[in-house]
Amino acid sequence: MPDVLFFVKDREGRYTHVNQTMLRRLGLKSRKDLIGKRVAEVYPSGLGANYANQDEQVLAGEVIDNLLELHLFANREPGWCLTCKRPLVVNGKVQGIIGISRDLGPQDGHESQYEKLRLALAYLNANYAQNVRMQALVEITGFSMSKLQRSFRKVFQLTPQQVLAKLRLQMAMHLLHGNKSLTEIGHACGFSDQSAFARQFKQAVGMTPREYRALANAQQFSTETV
């Protein structure tokens, strides 16, 4: 897929694997021009610092999903992309980063729409623990409700409601590795009550929050005793 960029980094943030799309985006001819380098050695200072900050978050165990952001094409023209980054976990420990980025194309009149969607996504990220009204996204973007739904589906392949549910579940999975009670986690992630949390979690993950926590704790114990 010529519009999908793929990369793997080690714990130091150095590229270990990249595909041809990434080389083309950066205007490079060979993988050896990129392997072993960090983002600060590849991108302009502003972008490099932003990507490095993302890497630190992922190496700490966080997941970055459907991040709508600007990047530079090989001709140094700005364009939009949709980025996902996840920890590379080996034997229960984070050993690096796996990333995928889908090009949405250079700025060609759609930049205003993408910027509005970025603001809507930022609002969901900041407020997923609250009772989020879809009307708030309409007000942020200036779209009609039908256009909001269409735009989210086109870019994220999800409705705004599905993006919100995904954010809540991802945060819940992260918190279940800690010591907070299930009630505290459900409340912190925006679920209306404990039964709604358990029901939606099981529907999406295939097990209850309690079962997921037990599995996560067992895996951690197994890793520590090796």
From TrEMBL:
Single GO MF annotation: DNA-binding transcription factor activity
UniProtKB keywords: DNA-binding, Transcription, Transcription regulation
SMART domains with a match to the protein in the record: HTH_ARAC
HTH araC/xylS-type domain ranges (all copies): 118-215
Organism: Xanthomonas axonopodis pv. citri (strain 306)
Gene3D superfamilies named among the record's database cross-references: Homeodomain-like (1.10.10.60), PAS domain (3.30.450.20)
UniProt xrefs under InterPro entries: AraC_XylS_family_regulators, Homeodomain-like_sf, HTH_AraC, HTH_AraC-typ_CS, PAS, PAS-like_dom_sf, PAS_4, Tscrpt_reg_AraC-type_HTH
PROSITE patterns: HTH_ARAC_FAMILY_1, HTH_ARAC_FAMILY_2
A Pfam short name: HTH_18
Lineage: Bacteria, Pseudomonadati, Pseudomonadota, Gammaproteobacteria, Lysobacterales
Protein name: Transcriptional regulator araC/xylS family
